[in-house]
Amino acid sequence: MDPELEAFIPLFPRADLTDTVTERKNFADLAAAVPAPDVTGLDIEDRTVPADPDVPVRIYRPRQAQGAVVWLHGGGFVMGDLETEHPWAARMADLSGTVVISVGYRLAPEHPYPAALDDAYAVLAWTAEHAAGLGIDPERIAVGGHSAGAGLAAALALRARDRQGPPIRYQLLNQPGLDDRQETWSQRHFTDTPWMNRDKVTASWRHYLGDTPATSDAAPARAADLSGLPAAYIATAELCPNRDEDITYALRLLQAGVSVELHQWPGTFHGSQAILSAEVSQRQIAELGAVLRRALAE
Question: What is the value of pTM for the model shown?
Answer without folding.
Answer: 0.97
